Batch of 4 targets.
Target 1
Amino acid sequence: MDAANSRKRLLLKVIVLGDSGVGKTSLMNQYVYKRFSLQYKATIGADFVTKELQIDDKLVTLQVWDTAGQERFQSLGAAFYRGADCCALVYDVNVAKSFESLNNWHDEFLRQADPPSPESFPFVLLGNKIDVDGGHSRAVTEKRATEWCASKGNVPYFETSAKEDLNVDEAFLCAAKIAQTAG
Ligand code: GTP
Ligand code: MG
């Protein structure tokens, strides 16, 4: 890359998907504003936050789109998904059903986004709420999650807590890095 290109600002769009209540909004609030609330307020429709990042020699504006997990609040069409550079899937490690929904979110994203090479589209997986009950209420093992990731073509995996701010920066930084590889 030449000097002019390396100074270019890059806008990367990441879409966060997963069942209602897994902590999508909380993860984004922790990542961008460093705040957390135990109060649950369902996301309606979709909204984005941005964060400026320096990745190697590039200035990146990361645009992270929060979406509604509750079906009745979902309002995103295919046109919206189509601009995505990365999809971050989130489940709650204490709720098996939220893990079992991942295939649906994954396939539905690809169906709507319709990227040129779906088999290599960058996904990242976040297993959230690892802080709950000191890990005693876990319903999905790390092994099960990493096997799922392997089955989808080496999807990077992070175990996170939006509450305790564990691995949140790392997960979104990874999303930003792999987003650069999207066609
Ligand atoms: P929808 O907007 O309905 O799709 O839900 P969401 O995925 O955005 O979930 P949200 O971030 O609103 O979090 C749901 C609830 O879980 C809230 O009460 C949060 O405080 C709580 N929560 C989120 N992340 C964590 C976490 O890491 N640990 C704990 N203990 N609670 C969390
Ligand atoms: Mg939300």
Target 2
Amino acid sequence: VLTLKETLENVIPQRRDAVKELKALYGNTVIGPITISSVIGGMRGNQSMFWQGTSLDPDHGIRFQGLTIEQCQKRLPGTGINGDNFLPESMLWLLMTGSVPSFQQVDSLRRELALRGKELPHYTEKVLLSLPKDMHPMTQFAIGLASMNKGSVFATNYQKGLIGKTEFWKDTLEDSLNLIASLPLLTGKIYSNITNEGRPLGQYSEDVDWCTNICSLLGMTEKNSSNTGNLNSQQSLDFINLMRLYTGIHVDHEGGNVSAHTTHLVGSALSDPYLSYSSGIMGLAGPLHGLAAQEVVRFLIEMNSNISSIALEKEIKEYLWKILKSNRVIPGYGHAVLRKPDPRFTAMLEFAQMRPNEFKNDKNVLLMQKLAEVAPKVLLEHGKSKNPFPNVDSASGILFYHYGIRELLFFTVIFGCSRSMGPLTQLVWDRILGLPIERPKSLSFEGLEALTKAT
Ligand code: FAM
């Protein structure tokens, strides 16, 4: 079986030629206008980034190398056990190479990552241990990742002048795989810091998949004696599959979102993958980006304590109207690009719907499901939001909460594990294609004003 790197090596020449030809033949083709509104409005709608792995359609949501979530669920290999979700390792292969891997290919990548990730560098361990236990978990995450830059193969070889530009991608891939592989231990360390005085919550194994290791190190597998969630064996398996589903579909959301764009921008200065992705993590920590899932959990809990029954639609509607009338937003609804329910939400909702017995007594999960019917009606009547449907953050946090992850700030760390795969894949491709340092032109107020006079 060819490794991921060998498979990539076979794909590269044709893709390099195609991009070179596109630039040579159509380099001057105008893609679209850039307006003053977009320049002072977060560059919304400007088609100005090259990004290969994923694309976002307002009606159909995210596509991974052209495949919808539903297609990924059907076609990407999992563990081979019936009912198990596909492995994020499969998604990484798809993003990186552009093709659906075989079971054997995924299994070899699973093994490769498990071996690469079996220990954290001793200095990273030391740094993490020294951090205050109540430090924001995303700050711990970014510090841990940045510290690993000490072992970057790319940075070392670049400094020694050992590699030429066309070969940069090899060390970038090496670092990226090492980084992704390190995430179960890094995440487990952060979770044990905030919940268990830094004492390990579970074991790492070279024989299992990336998500099973994440769950084990969070203390969320049954055989673990310090299990924080007190899960039985079925719940442990379900939680691992929830983790596979969640981390399999949050890998990427085109290039323009903050975490992806930041990783790409910092990487364009030839900063190594550790520095680049730790910057992306800093962006993911923002409340308008990765932190929204915790807002939804707070909202559901608060709403439940303010209504008498989930069955009373009238009461739910009144509660939502009270929020809207006080000029607040309904968290978990609306989107800047999407105009339909987010298919990532639908996938998470289906996870809950397939396990009615597990969730039948969880008022928060039941409310999440009920809101998906009621909130769009209210938002439509309200008439402001361009998208009245549930977004990605509507369901994920409350499902993690159900199984026992109660530290709301930690949700974004799990998001960050998943998000590593898309932006780091693009970083490898940035080096394969030799993309230059990013450097858009900026304009002052006077500069913009002068342009209005010129037209
Ligand atoms: N509840 C109430 N009002 C909403 C709303 C919601 N869920 N979503 C949008 N609106 C309002 C919005 O505030 C704006 O009002 P003003 O004209 O008074 O400023 C109006 O509808 C038009 O907004 P839009 O064009 O439809 O949305 P934007 O592109 O400006 O904003 C969101 C997109 C996601 C920031 C917005 O829908 C929102 O605040 N949603 C609630 C918070 C949330 O769920 N965030 C997570 C988003 C998630 F997908 C992610 O990216 N992680």
Target 3
Amino acid sequence: MSEPRGQFSSKIGFLMAASGSAVGLGNIWGFPTQAASNGGGAFVLAYLVLAFLLAYPALMAELVIGRHARANIVTALDQLGERPLTKRLGRAVGYYGVLIAGLILSFYAIVAGWMLAEFGKPVAHLIGWSGAEQWLGGDSLVRNLLVCGIFTAFTVAIIAKGVEDGIEAWSTRLMPLLFIILLGLILYVLVQPGATDGLKTYLIPDFRQLADPGLLLSAMGQAFFSLSLGVGTMLIYGSYLRKDDSLPRMGAAVTLLDISIAFTAGLLILPAMYVAQHQGIAIYGDNGELLAGPGLIFQVLPSLFANMGGAGTWLSVAFFALMSIAALTSSISMLEAPVSVVTERTRLKRSGAAWSIGAVIFVISALIIANMSTLFDATVSLTTEYSQPLLGIALCLFVGWIMHRNQLLNELKAGHQDIEHSLFWKIWPFYVRIICPLLILLAFIQTLR
Ligand code: PFF
């Protein structure tokens, strides 16, 4: 009925693809600015604890289901539930997950399009195309639609090529480039005057803020978003992993990479903000709050680069290339979730599925672009604040209560024979059944109050 299933050709291929999914705008923009506005080092600490306590176990649940079922999220959950009711429930959760993946992509592609435009600006400047430079710097509807469309088309083109030649090949090329650009930028920015003030704001903890439930919630939301949880992307990547690779090790490696890059990005973003302040650029808003949102990326940093003359143009190329690469390796994973459902459950071929789903997503992005003030924030909060944690709970419950214990243990043992002596083995199966869903629920209830 369908094309043969793809598979990652190596551990590194999986690691680059899964950490490519995890490392995105959420790490390079979201994490550092949330940390700076929420108690600095205290947020970093809360994030570390929550990432290991909640997000890593939930990531493991997705990888275990995916590799066990070797299928997309809908088919996988349908297979796990053996009775009609649990099967139906499984399919419903699966469809909801991929719908959310598509919706996340629809707003993510808008922001990623802006990054492409900002990348194009200094490039146009270097080539001497001042008309294009000006147009890209504007905020017209056509410009926003065009850059979003181009970004979505890149995403679709990679997914249309399949698991090994598309996802794996591109992630293994782009992720090392991302590390190199990030490190290069940090080294440059850290030696500029003002940088140490940024490091202080980022790292010195204000522990009073730990008592604020809002802080824990933001840290949890950030961890779920950052590890791409709940929407079937990690599940489908897990399903392409070979049986002789150890899931707990792979999951831990992805979590560690994700956290390290988020942390490292803070060493760039906060110092850059304070270097900007040192040069007289405003980094606080009217109410004394740190300009952490679009104002930071699209005003503060571009003004800083503009102040730096020739070097600034290259810095700007490097920074927005970094942002675009981070966004692209994440967006391909978002698209793979619905595409895998369609190719494995209908007769449609991969490239047909990728282009048609991409087109639908682009239409949704266009609707959001045309109604930015009402639809953008609503889509972000519906998908990331509400749906991702709820879906995370559902997937933990599927692994904990519906999957047979021996299936689960076999999946953990595959590629990891000595796991029976580890703490993970003793704790995780119980933890994912009861504690993890309860903790996510508790944190979630705080949002509703
Ligand atoms: N993890 C990505 C980031 O931090 O930017 C965002 C993301 C990717 C969310 C894939 C959801 C997803 F399925």
Target 4
Amino acid sequence: MSWALARPEKPAADLRSALIEPGIGEAIYDLACRIYPICRSITGPGVRETLGALGLHLPLEVREVPTGTAAFDWTIPPEWAIRGAYVRNVTGEKVVDFADNNLHVVGYSRPVRTVLPLAELKRHIHTLPEQPDLIPYRTAYYSEQWGFCMTHRQLEALSDGLYEVVVDTSLDSGSLSYGEYLHQGETDEEFLFSAHICHPSLANDNCSGLALLAVLAERLSRLRTRYSYRFLFAPGTIGAIAWLAANEAGVERIRHGLVVSCLGDGGGPTYKKSRRGNTAIDHVMTHVLRHAANEPKILDFFPYGYDERQYCSPGFNLPVGLLQRSQFGTFPEYHTSADDLNFIRPEHLGDSYRMIAAAIEVVERDWLPLNVAPKCEPQLGRRGLYEAVGGGSDGPVRSMAFLWILNLADGAHSLLDIAERADLPFAVMADAAALLRERGLLVRNGNGDAHKTVGQEPATASAEPFAALANRGPAAGDWRVD
Ligand code: ZN
């Protein structure tokens, strides 16, 4: 494999500044606002329109999977389109109208034109009695149903009598659409990012995830990276299943993966581990979240949630976790009309983005350092490293990082391992290690298997003088053997 020889065009430390620009949270929020009004479902024009909006930020490939195509145990359903829907009382007043809110119609409602008494109409109406001012979000993808969602107050205001019901939808042979973008890195090993694109007018779940990934992809596309980064914008469940069915042969390239949703609210952060529970991404995200927040939630895998269910199904068992702020289902706005553009904030979107950028920095910059002067402490002053520590406020942290790295750089501990032991952010360690290497105190462990590390710095020096140390190889029981 040639990747250990590859050298990024820019110094790796520049990755951080290239990815994280001022105003990044606002940029994500603006894009979320652009796609929020579109009525999406698992198929149909709303998904394509959303992919079109995201495609203004990155060269997105839009794929169409025809109705009836088999995907493992599933079949691509008929394509759903909606032109309008309402319920009108005897005076001609519309008591509920899809034109007012996309959530008013149950997703995948079959077409209907009829007149019904209130008692019968009520069987097709969904409300939230506990949250009487909110409209619930409901779907009926795989059943022949129709229905309306409204506030409980709206329902209570309906008087007895007949109602005219019009659901102007179609369910025809068509296709399921998803969008995909691959940023090619120095290697074919991939970091997969996946977000569901099927929810109508819900901001946190999941305009936040779609917008964040599009902005991230746009920035990554200008950089040279070691990993390749794949971005997938697919309808929940059936989209991920269709993608896996079409790409089964290539999934072994996926070294790390994150499903993202609900990235714009003020809660969390929450990370749900991959099914394996000890993969590199699990360690990376645990580290990143612990340094990004006071009380992050780190959850073991469970088989419900978003598309990590498909990536982590036993036949794939991929190293894919789920990143959220508040966990789905735990906040009162979840799957209601209150999950709107006021519920997500640019500062929270920016925070989520910075966590993901930090994770990318770990996988791009982690390597196995070897101390070339391991007998007693090396003399730092002679190498200008006391000056480097300097009198700045980060001086003590820097010098602590030097001490930890020099002590644990035995060729068996990665920088992430050392950052964990020292309880310091990875970025501090990576910058300190870069300086130590520049001053000739560290080399890359030439013996370690690059593919067992999270990432690997390009080789610039031989580990020959300390071959005995290097021969120890990766630490026994190391999580990276996954
Ligand atoms: Zn949802």
